Amino acid sequence: MPDSPNHAIVYGASGLIGWALINQLLVPYPATNTFKKVTAVTNRPLDLSETYWPEPDSRRPELQLVSGVDLRGWNKTTLLERLRQRVENIEDVTHIYYLVFTAMDDDIEEVATNRRMLQNVIDVHNLISPKLQFVAFVGGTRGYGIYSPGGTFTPPLHEEMVKNLPPDYAKTVVYPSYREILDTSSAEKNWTWCEVCPDAIIGFTPNGSQFSLALHWAQYLSLYAYNNGIGPHTQGNSTNPIAKIPFPGSLAGATSLFSPVSSTRLAQFLIYASLHPKTCGSGQLFNIADQETPSTYGSLWPHLAKWFGLIGIAPSEPGPETEYNKLKVGEMPEEVSSLAPGEYIAKYRDVFAQWGCQKAVTGGVGAGNRQLDSVGYWLTFDRQLSLERLMGTGFEGGRGRDPVQGWVESFGLFRRAGLIL
Ligand SMILES: NC(=O)c1ccc[n+]([C@@H]2O[C@H](COP(=O)([O-])OP(=O)(O)OC[C@H]3O[C@@H](n4cnc5c(N)ncnc54)[C@H](OP(=O)(O)O)[C@@H]3O)[C@@H](O)[C@H]2O)c1
């Protein structure tokens, strides 16, 4: 078989989606010789030996890690020069996966900043990568209006609905701008593009992430178990082998329907879509989830707690009849009977240092801390995704996987990487 000419470049390779995507490209998914080369671009420095990506072997595509690429700080000229200097064979790039996101307090500024970063990346590749075939980016259910209290559309959420997003809300989300950029920039070019829409993404990152719910809850559960004498560091010293931990949210937060996805499955579909431009290109949007049957946080919680030796129980906070269901994105009720996960982690973080988990001290969830604390309180409405369009693509993973699997795989990796006890 002749060598594949495909060269994938992944912007945001250190993030929640980016890590999983590089991992799958190197596995190699879907088969040996799909990609010849993979370039992983990151902003923060990344130590390859701490990424847990597959080691080089005869089946693995060649990997180049290019760190210190600050898309926010660099203009187009700087980006062009630096990429030319630092990315080997940039002229051979065939597939771009764009997974960068910078969260900012001001939504309008956030849109402008993120928009400029993607525009620069695409303009540069249009100049220097004549073999480009496909661009894929990841949006999210924010693009279906879930940041409005109570949501915007009646679920299941279908891809066509994004066209009816109220204009005042649409201007606070960057995804419509990304679509505009890619539509305009791909006109009369040999490449096409698609967008993939997940709700909560469950996965591993070696050095934190802005919005990793799995990491946030794993650190909470890990410290809670330790403080109750349970877990690998308390062997023989168990003070409470049946510690109960309530779901951190309200009853409505625990029972509302949603569609989580593991970062592995999301990554596999991104690769699949990019290799099937006829079926998946032309600027189409695809929802993605682990399963067509929706989940609830309340049904997942006991499984997550169990991994840490705890008993996950129903929330101790009141239900939907309270004012909780009027909360906006990231808002917590004023009175909550116990510490929120982020507050609990902050209070006991020293325990991680005490047991040599340095990564857990420095590599938490960063900017998304408050929003992740509030997940169980403000997301009190159904927001499940329709997977009809995804299943029509022929993606082999269309059959789906158990949503608990992504959590426990991530927990195992967090422990291996010293991000939890
Ligand atoms: N997390 C979720 O559950 C979730 C759910 C639905 C949708 N999404 C969407 O998925 C996209 C990616 O989010 P994520 O969860 O993967 O976030 P993430 O884990 O925080 O990753 C963001 C990535 O962006 C990179 N980045 C940030 N600022 C940069 C800059 N100035 N220059 C270059 N790279 C920069 C980061 O690089 P460094 O780490 O190197 O700084 C990181 O790799 C976003 O559009 C988000 O809305 C996420």
From TrEMBL:
It holds the Pfam family PRISE. SUPFAM superfamilies: NAD(P)-binding Rossmann-fold domains (SSF51735). It comes from the Eukaryota. Residues 8-320 form the PRISE-like Rossmann-fold domain. InterPro entries: NAD(P)-bd_dom_sf (IPR036291), PRISE-like_Rossmann-fold (IPR055222). This is PRISE-like Rossmann-fold domain-containing protein.
